[in-house]
Amino acid sequence: MRINIAEHAYALNSLPVSAQRCVNLYYEPAGEETKTQGALYGTPGLKIFASIGSGRIWGMHVMSGVLYVVSGDNVYTVTSDGGANDLGAIGTVSNVVMMDNNGTNVIITKEEGDGWLATASTLVQITDGDFPSVTSVAVLDSYAIYTKKATTQYILSDLNDAASYNAARIASAEESPDLLVRAFANHGELWLFGELTTEVHENTGTGDFPFVPQQNAAMQRGCGAKRSVAAEDNTLFWLGEDRIVYRADGYTPKRVSTFAIEKAMQDYTTVSDAEAFIYTQDGHKHYVLTFPTELETWVFDIATDKWHQRQSFEEGRWRATGHAFVFSKNLVGDFETGKIYELDLKKYTDNGTTIQRINTFPIVHNDDKLITFSNFKVDFDSGVGLTTGQGSDPQCMMRFSNNGGISFGSELWRGIGKIGKYLTRSVWKKCGAARQRVFEIKITDPVKVVITAAYINEPD
Questions:
Q1: How far apart are CA 416 and CA 443, in angstroms?
Q2: Backbone angles phi, psi at 259, to 5 degrees
Q3: Is the pLDDT of residue 328 over 90?
Q4: With b meaning 16 or more CB within 10 Å and e meaning fewer, what string describes 129-151?
Q5: pTM (2 decimals)?
């Protein structure tokens, strides 16, 4: 009898209803006329690319093929071989920075409200007397656009000049008096995310202040974390003020989070510091949403509409922060150090640290009838062991729960195939009996992990 693997993370408040976990594994459906409907694949490891400065990575941005990085309190340009040029300090940096560019300058805004302009060789602070304290930056039609701190207002720079401002060039979001938290440019439109509502403005090309509200584009949905907004797949994703994750369908927010994930987020003490980025790899577009205070990372696979978790070993959250695609690489920063990593599907550790891959299966039951489990089998891409060291005889741990995933028994280990042993199957025999059972497997060896199927009571 074939049983379902957990294709996504879906642990409910009542674990006996659903205890599914999918950690450092993502689902990919198979094509027609294949042995299995789909498989779970190991998420990419972190391969060291560069070590920049002396502090953690606060931001990454690409302009004209040059990578700009904020590490600690300093701004750097980084070359394709990982070399770095220190442009100077921008004062104390206490949180992830906002970055955009107008083709001439990379514009950086900090949590403290100040703004900075960087080129490949210069770094200056915006000192115009009409430049206020700001919370975010976006660039659209050669204007630098900022949300003014603790107000409903946003301001524009002079055209093609991110250093020059006019106190009269300011406007308000008009739909609601809630405070603005984020400006975001997308497909020629200016999205203004407030605490409770969102509206879209467009450039009419006329007047000293050319941006006006777009008709029928106001949304009764706000933004709960300004750094959660990210663009991909011709639309925007963000964490709503109601702790639900949304995707814009035109000007309608469409819910993409699940009840299980929303329950987890409802229990968090802090969500306003959530940060997100989107990266594409092997056809999958992943919206990565990390809650730094809660030390948790959730990932939405836009291609499959399924969620999974990312964790770095003994960290809770995933180590990655920020993202830039440059030098034909997906690069991410480190949330504790100045390291920059490449996301590499053929790297099976996080820069040498163990990646723990966990799948907690859906509940196996037969309408409350007693099931005898003569065996439990899992099919992998086997024979992937390394030549020496850890992973030369890769193992899978299995444990099971008879109370719906509330508590589990002892860990039982089986091999998944030394190098070249392609017909290896992981089999656990004489697994007892139960009216309901939740199986969980875990792999920690630094090898390729692909889980294709699972069975119970299959004849030898």
A1: 10
A2: -55, -40
A3: yes
A4: eebbebbbbbbbbebbbbbbbeb
A5: 0.96
